[in-house]
Amino acid sequence: MDAKQRAGEKAVEFVEDGMNVGLGTGSTVYWTIMRLGSMVKQGLNIRAVPTSRRTEKLAREQDITLVGFNEIEELDLTIDGADEINPSLDLTKGGGGALLREKLVAAASKRLIIVADESKRVAALGRFPLPVEVVPFAWQVTARRLAEDLSCTPTLRLDAAEQPYVTDNGNYILDCACGEINDPASLHRALKLLAGVIETGLFIGMADIAIIASESGVEVIKAEQNIPRIEER
Ligand code: 5RP
After folding, report:
1. Domains in the chain and their CATH numbers?
2. 91 close to 202: Cβ distance less than 8 angstroms
3. Ligand 1: which residue has its CA nearest to atom 5?
4. pLDDT tens by residue, 4-46
5. Hey, which end of the chain has fewer CB within 10 Å, N or C?
6. pLDDT at 227 over 90
7. What average pLDDT score do residues 63-79 get?
8. At what angle do helices 53-61 and 29-41 cross, to 10 degrees?
9. Does the pLDDT value for residue 232 go beyond 50?
10. CA 101 – ligand 1 centroid, Å
11. What is the C-alpha separation between 223 and 233, in angstroms, rounded?
12. Which residues contact 28 (CB under 8 A, 6 or more apart)?
């Protein structure tokens, strides 16, 4: 069993009968969804909110009951992947393009559990280019501000046909090389002040638990209780 599968499957231990669960996006949480699917077939009763069309399709195939925020107010927990995890459990997310819905779903959850393989663990965020979701109109202007005001190097994400990648929300993504991110909260706030920026892939103070797997085992890491939560929560 590979590390992503090990981490993804471990996370179902936190799911209890009757819970409302947020389902993240990506190749690690894929294993969580597959395992939840087999638990549902054996009688587990959960309702889930997907963070992307891709996850929605997978969850439907697994007979997991899906709901929207017109039906529920809050989620008991969300399980999702990450592109980078620092020692405070601050995250970079959005490699799969689902950062906006992932952040909204995480913000509506009592707990956020991150599943990842060991390669996602970093001393400081920033090696993985930071995904920033932007309004397509005048994205060039937003990109220029990002470069000139914040010294990041943005690259417009393209799809397989070399066309701008369009998110589930109809927006574009700028993958931003910003160097080592030593103060993720300041960078997040500065980015959010730029016209055209909808959301950033920085998830600060949101993760409660990280389940990180390697070939040799699985580690369950709890966030420090005293880390202040950011305004999204
Ligand atoms: C999607 C994400 C994913 O959670 C992140 O890219 C990790 O993906 P994977 O589990 O496939 O490595 O943020 O927007």
Report:
1. 3-121+204-224 (3.40.50.1360), 130-200 (3.30.70.260)
2. yes
3. 82
4. 999 999 999 999 999 999 999 999 999 999 999 999 999 999 9
5. N
6. no
7. 97
8. 30
9. no
10. 13
11. 15
12. 4, 7, 8, 81, 115, 116, 117
C-alpha distances (whole Å) from 10 to each of 116, 210, 223 are 11, 11, 17
End-to-end CA gap in the chain? 35
The yes-or-no verdict on residue 230 having pLDDT over 70 is no
Atom of ligand 1 nearest to the CA of 26: 11
100 in Cβ contact with 133 (< 8 Å): yes
Instruction: For residue 74, report the distance from its CA to the centre of ligand 1, in Å.
Output: 23
The residues carrying an active-site annotation are 102
Closest atom of ligand 1 to 99 CA is 14
What amino acid occupies position 15? Answer: V
Q: Whose CA is nearest to atom 4 of ligand 1?
A: 81
Distance 27 CA to ligand 1 centre (A): 7
Which tokens belong to 4? Answer: 């992503």
Do 49 and 22 touch, CB atoms closer than 8 A?
yes
The verdict on pTM exceeding 0.85 is yes
Ligand 1 centroid vs 46 CA: distance in angstroms?
23
